[in-house]
Amino acid sequence: MKLLAGKKAVILGIANERSIAYSIAKLFKDEGAELGLTYVNEALGKRVIPLSEELGAKFVIPMDVTVDGDYENLKKVVEKEFGHVDILIHSLAFANGEDLKKPFIETSREGFAQAMDISAYSLMKLCNTLKDSFSEEASVLAMTYHGSVKIVKNYNLMGVAKAALECITRYLSIDLGERKVRINCISAGPIRTLAASGIPGFRDILKDVEERSPLKRNVTQDDVANTAVYLASRLSSGVTGQVIYVDSGHSQVAL
Ligand code: NAP
């Protein structure tokens, strides 16, 4: 029996084949899930629509998490195409490159608000939008990074946004728990993707994981997708409000 047989999964955050969300979508499909996908704008749609066809997605729609009307549209499409949601994947983040390049102390007010809105608040708004559509025992997942709890050189503003995302996950676990819905974060090790290319010095972060992590290798999108299947399936039925690390154990190494 496939682990996600018949489950209806809404997945946000595919930009291309390297996206963590793409690997999650592929493995979810293999495990029997039906997929509904979103892409942020028309330019990315040109890449994501063909991928959605290859994945046999039930729907693929534009969704920019800064636009209120897009949440309403998502709700309508979900009700029409799926009826309910068993799995929600939040795999998106944004911080303006100018702010990431500056010393952290000089982060702009606008840049701060935008990073928090896209990378953290969107998880709350998505859950609120879909709350009446979640099935009993639905599972919500968001992607985070260890720069939320420890200083990682150059991660700066994104670290603050990820700290908020993880905290939001804990508080949402109460509201969603009343409906028997679970919510967790995966804290992934560094992976070469479009979003990661915006972090100055990312190559050094990858090198450090290879040299110092217990597994002596970087994780892949597929490593993250394996844990996503666990967290989306009945195998994790008692797990909520948690941050689960998929990082070759790197976060446990002090020196
Ligand atoms: P990715 O392929 O670039 O995916 C990030 C997605 O977020 C892109 O599709 C991006 O679109 C989208 N996005 C940005 N602003 C948005 C908005 N306003 N509305 C909707 N979507 C928006 O990168 P990824 O590495 O797979 O990132 C997925 C998640 O994993 C992110 O939360 C990231 O922080 C997290 N993560 C990544 C790593 C890593 O090393 N790669 C490690 C730990 C956690 P645009 O391309 O147009 O901006």
Descriptive account of the structure:
Helix 1 packs across helix 8 (221-232) and helix 5 (109-130) packs parallel to helix 6. The protein has one domain (8-247): Rossmann fold. Strand 2 (34-39), helix 2 (42-54) and strand 3 (59-62) form a beta-alpha-beta unit. It has eight helices and seven strands. A seven-stranded parallel sheet has the order 3-2-1-4-5-6-7, with helices on both faces. It has helices at residues 20-30, 42-54, 68-81, 97-101, 109-130, 156-177, 202-212, 221-232, and strands at residues 8-12, 34-39, 59-62, 85-90, 134-144, 182-188, 243-246. The model has no long low-confidence stretch (mean pLDDT 97). It is globular. The chain is α/β, with parallel strands linked by helices and 255 residues long. The site of NADP nicotinamide-adenine-dinucleotide phosphate has 27 residues, from helix 1 and strand 5.
What do we call the CATH topology? Rossmann fold
Report the major sheet.
7 strands, parallel
List all distinct small molecules, including ions and cofactors, that are bound in this structure.
NADP nicotinamide-adenine-dinucleotide phosphate
Q: Give the % helix.
A: 40-55%
Structural class: alpha/beta
Rounded to the nearest angstrom, the radius of gyration is 17 Å
Label the CATH architecture.
3-Layer(aba) Sandwich
Q: Any idea how many domains? A: 1
Give the C-level CATH assignment: Alpha Beta
Q: Terminal Cα separation, in Å?
A: 43 Å
**Number of separate strands:** 7
Mean model confidence by pLDDT: 97
The CATH superfamily appears as: NAD(P)-binding Rossmann-like Domain
Proportion in β-strands: 15-25%
Shape: globular
pLDDT below 50 for ≥5 consecutive residues: which ranges?
Answer: none
| SSE topology string | EHEHEHEHHEHEHHE
